[in-house]
Amino acid sequence: MTTPVSEIIDILKQQADLYDTMLGLEKEKTPAIIRNDMNELNAITAKERKWTIEAQRLEQERLRLTAGIVVQNGLSRVRAGVLSNLIKVVTDAKEKQELTELHHRLRETLQELKLVNENNKQMMEMSLDFIRFSLDLLVEDPNENVVYQHPLNRTAPGPGMGIFNKRY
């Protein structure tokens, strides 16, 4: 017989598997960022979008079931979305053990996912900083007028002319 708690356990198992998949994708991103392989990054991002939508669906279902247990047991003071609170109110030892193990697995996976994601984010920001720096070198002074001027209207080539403005 399926109980609301066993349904939550099934959902948590699906969430744990899904986050493992997302962690694998995030780890695949790291070498793609290093190689600056935009095609692979786009493919990984498309997969992540799909899994993120599924993660949101599973989380909403888990919250709905957990809220039902809270209402059913008259536990209005317990925050329904917090898994550790659910573990406290479950009385079946086997279900409590499964919930505890899944709670630890999810917490560890999500912490690692957060760490890998943060590293990838820093690499992307460094890459963008390098691109901005390179563009600044080409233009020299980004605040200077970079709009084309007819050569006859220009007084004298100034020191602010970047590589694209120079004539050889």
Summarize the structure.
This is Flagellar protein FlgN. By secondary structure, the chain is mainly alpha-helical.
What does this molecule look like?
Residues 96-126 form a coiled coil. Keywords: Bacterial flagellum biogenesis, Cell projection, Cilium, Coiled coil, Flagellum. Pfam families: FlgN. InterPro entries: FlgN-like, FlgN-like_sf. The chain has helices at 4-35, 38-72, 83-89, 93-139. It has 168 residues and is mainly alpha-helical. The chain has one domain: Methane Monooxygenase Hydroxylase, Chain G, domain 1, CATH 1.20.58.300. It is elongated, with a radius of gyration of 27 Å.
Low-confidence stretches: none
Please state the structural category.
mainly alpha
CATH H-level name... which superfamily? FlgN-like
- Order of helical and strand elements: HHHH
Please report the distance between the alpha carbons of the first and last residues: 82 Å
The backbone outline, from C-alpha atoms, is elongated
Report the portion of residues in β strands. Answer: under 5%
Largest sheet descriptor: none
Mind telling me the CATH class? Mainly Alpha
Which fold does the CATH topology refer to? Methane Monooxygenase Hydroxylase, Chain G, domain 1
| Whole-number tally of structural domains | 1
Report the total helices: 4
Number of strands: 0
CATH architecture level-2 label: Up-down Bundle
Question: Which percent bin holds the helix content?
Answer: over 70%
Average residue-wise pLDDT: 85
Keywords: Bacterial flagellum biogenesis, Cell projection, Cilium, Coiled coil, Flagellum
GO biological process, one term: bacterial-type flagellum assembly
Protein name: Flagellar protein FlgN
Coiled coil: 96-126
